[in-house]
Amino acid sequence: MTTLTETAEKIKNMEIRGAGRIARAAANAMKEEAMSIETADLEEFNKRMREAYTTLLNTRPTAVSLPNALKAVMRYRADSVEEARQAIIANADAFIAASENAVKRIGEIGARRIKDGDTILTHCNSSAAFHIFEAAFKQGKDINVVATETRPRQQGYITVDFLHKAGIPATLILDSAVRYYMKKVDLVIVGADAITVNGSLINKVGTSQVALAANEARVSFICAAETYKFSPKTLFGEMVEIEERDPSEVLSPELQKKWPNLKVSNPAFDITPHKYIDMIITEIGAIPPEMAYWVIKDKLGWELEEAAGGI
Ligand code: RI2
Predict the structure, then answer these.
(1) What phi and psi, each to the nearest 5 degrees, are found at residue 130?
(2) Whose CA is nearest to atom 12 of ligand 1?
(3) What does the DSSP 8-state code read for residue 240?
């Protein structure tokens, strides 16, 4: 059994990465934590669970799937430790099952947007987007997926590995080749780390440049996102924090020493304004980005934010 601290470390160093995977790993870590706490004192149990919540929450700041998953697991009321433990286990199992079903449903809905012969460009590695490619390919559509390398962590390699294993034709390109390549592309499909109340997309850095190039070439830009990637706190005016990762991901420590006055900036995500997004494919349907407010308010519910206050 992996301990909670180990899971937290793996999320931090990106051994566990991708907004959906992070959320499921965090839910599972909370479940295992609940199963392992040995006390009959409910207050002590709740305190330990809150500590676990904070440890996981503080791993990476941007993907809203993480706080949304943690809040979903922590939504319980109990009169005994056993009741609390069972509620947490049930909540975590339900979240993980719903999350796995959501990507399957996104695959089915998204595949309808893909035509036989389409070339689809994707950025980084998104399992939600991949489910769409896989579903379309299984329907017998002849597709080619163009994957960007995605500097500095090269998640594009993970994407081409997924595609290779599924037998889907793929082309790997440099991030800087996106605009040059866009004339050969029919559709862009990317994932999401967070979607704000005004329908803007927070995703892997470079996504907004892809969106600009798609817009210029009149290529549809689609985002694949489970509803738990929508950010409730943005309804209350809060901003999504963009993670700044270590400079060593961009420039080796040796070269950093060689140029001691050089500043290296490494934002992991960027923001694509909703006007560049044609549609967001969620498990409850394909929606225009302008409907983000409705998803947050009616589907996720205000209680998500209230739960944040209660934890
Ligand atoms: P799925 C990733 O972030 C990428 O930005 C990707 O688009 C997003 O999570 C969603 O991934 P990182 O963890 O949930 O690589 O669709 O920084 O797999």
Answers:
(1) -60, -35
(2) 18
(3) P
223 is catalytic: no
- 163: confidence class by pLDDT, cuts 50, 70, 90: very high
CA of 91 to the centre of ligand 1 (A): 23
Residues 180-226: pLDDT tens digits?
A: 999 999 999 999 999 999 999 999 999 999 999 999 999 999 999 99
Sequence-ordered strand ranges (E) for the chain: 119-122, 144-148, 170-173, 187-190, 194-195, 201-204, 220-224, 269-272, 279-282, 285-287
pLDDT at 303: 53
Does the active-site annotation cover 124? yes
3-state class (DSSP) for residue 220: strand
DSSP 3-state of 183: helix
Q: Over 80: is that where the pLDDT of 300 sits?
A: no
What token pair was written down for 91?
Answer: 């909540």
Separation between Cα atoms, residue 192 and residue 228, nearest integer Å: 10
- Compute and round to an integer the Cα radius of gyration of the chain: 20
- Tell me how far apart the alpha carbons of residues 60 and 269 are, in angstroms, rounded to a whole number: 12
Structure pTM? 0.95
Residues 11-49: tens digit of each pLDDT: 999 999 999 999 999 999 999 999 999 999 999 999 999
